[in-house]
Amino acid sequence: MKDASATHKTLSGAEWLIKPSLPEDTFIPEDFNEEQRMTKDMCIDFVSNEVKPILDRIDKLEEGLMPALLMKAGAQGLLGVSIPETYGGLGKDFITATLVNEGLGSGHSFSVAVAAHTGIGTLPILYFGTTAQKEKYIPKLISGEWKGAYGLTEPHSGSDALSAKTSARLSEDGKNYILNGQKCWITNGGFADIYTVFAKIDGDKFTAFIIERGMEGFTQGPEEHKMGIKGSSTVQLYFQDCKVPVENVLGEIGKGHVIAFNILNIGRLKLCAAVLGGAKQTLNETIEYANTREQFKVPISSFGAIKHKLAQMAIRIWVSETALYRTADWIAAKEDDLLKASKPFGEALLGAAEEYAVECAMLKVEGSEMMDFVADEGVQIYGGNGFSDEYNISRSYRDSRINRIFEGTNEINRLLAVDMVLKRAMKGKLDLLNAATKVASELMSIPEFGDEHGQAFAAELKAVHNMKKSVLLVAGAAVQKLMMKLQQEQEILMNIADMAITVYHAESALLRLIKLSENKSITDFSVQQDMTYCYLFDAADRIHKYGKDAVCAFSDGDEQKMLLLGLKRFTKTTPYNTKEARRRIADKMIAENKYYL
């Protein structure tokens, strides 16, 4: 399972906030090996040849169509890329598995179905199942013969998953658990064969069960009518004295939360990968349209306002991609370390994903909001035609919206990201307190004005370093002032989360640019430099705004003045002509008639 690229030094989860990262230790998409590129191309070809020609039929929920597509994907090995060869999978590394999610990400409702099947539909059994359970279910799941789904959400328990009401009790003969309850918004629920369902044994032991279609007392509701991803099967599940054999308990009794929450860590990163693939395709379609649509006797792609939009779409895609694979590489490296320490396969990957749960949450937020931005700007460039179902951009717009709700709402993920950082600090895994204290004391000193001439990217590296200081300044002051009350101040927590998310993506972009500049085989990285500089320039303003909102919410008087002065000091940037940079970015894509990076 080892990724050959993951041989460099990695940081622990959230450690990038207090320690520098080096370009040579950063995995970037340009580091993909030939096999990984071929795997991604195979996925893109599958979507282009098998899915896109029948998107309208898929959206009409034509009976049997989606299961047949999953079967075809299984026949090509796309459902078992990261599954161990023991169970019939290909046993590829985590980065390759992430690339598969990206490559299949432009398939609209199919992308949702395949992600649910290979992720939450298969992984709980792979990671937590007994040997007998894995041998029974995994081979048929990765072949596509059986389809998987996952039942966690209930009508009255969404983000608060542990408040679920579905109950389970042991039958008098001790052979079955009797389930009663209801699950909703179940992706693939209408046709799945195997479901991972959560219920409370005796009212308090939150536990996972493997449910098979046809079990006595198990029924499903009709298909939901949704705003988007219309071709994705979404139903409610009903359990009325449903008999589930005791051997179908998944994992430990009372430890269902371990399954639910750990699977979500991986799911968040994979969602980012999927929306990345969708965003690239949406931008490609938009560029092609802008080049062919004429107004005032010229293509609309020649207008500055359109170039600005195209460039900003590209910048957000490129930066999101950069942070995604930086994180995927860290997870791959951590997984390899745990495997070397004789950890079981499932435990190794889950442990690696848990280590970088903060980053996975941030990727999910930025990735889903990037996709929404790209789809929205795409509709705007299409103008009136974008509001018509005759053009695929309207489908992209409708389908993108769910991603900010999937895998935990973005609000929940923002709150979780900060909460997990603080908990890591409290457990001694992250020396956040000393780092924040040093930044606070720095406010009383005279700023350093170092000579940056002759040092490549020195000013940009300093800017990112100062952005990190701004996060530490605000977070440290908020913790000190509010202490235990901070968890009730969700607006402040989300401000801090947005600061951290922006910094992480800004640093990722800069590290990728520097690594490209040091690659002797790459002679032209001017567009990537323009994208990085535009992102950094805008990031400083956003971080300042997020920080100012937070500071004004928990401080006043001299303390507030000091914090705001420090925030302003740490978010200073060198003036940069982003208009011309965006024009250069757009002109290159317009000439290529696609997003080519």
Set down the secondary structure blueprint.
Blueprint (H helix, E strand, L loop, with lengths): L33 H18 L3 H5 L5 H11 L18 H10 L5 H10 L4 H6 L2 H13 L4 E4 L15 E4 L5 E12 L6 E8 L3 E8 L5 E3 L13 E12 L3 E2 L5 H37 L1 E2 L2 E2 L4 H37 L4 H11 L1 H26 L9 H9 L9 H17 L5 H11 L15 H25 L7 H28 L8 H29 L2 H14 L7 H15 L5
Parallel strand pairs: 1-4, 2-4
Antiparallel strand pairs: 2-3, 3-7, 4-5, 5-8, 6-7, 9-10
What features would you describe in this structure?
The protein is an alpha+beta fold and 597 residues long. Helix content is 56%, strand content 10%. It contains 19 helices and 10 strands. It has helices at 34-51, 55-59, 65-75, 94-103, 109-118, 123-128, 131-143, 256-292, 304-340, 345-355, 357-382, 392-400, 410-426, 432-442, 458-482, 490-517, 526-554, 557-570, 578-592; strands at residues 148-151, 167-170, 176-187, 194-201, 205-212, 218-220, 234-245, 249-250, 294-295, 298-299. Strands 1, 2, 3, 4, 5, 6, 7 and 8 form an 8-stranded mixed sheet that branches. The protein has a two-stranded antiparallel ribbon with strand order 9-10. The protein is globular, with a radius of gyration of 24 Å.
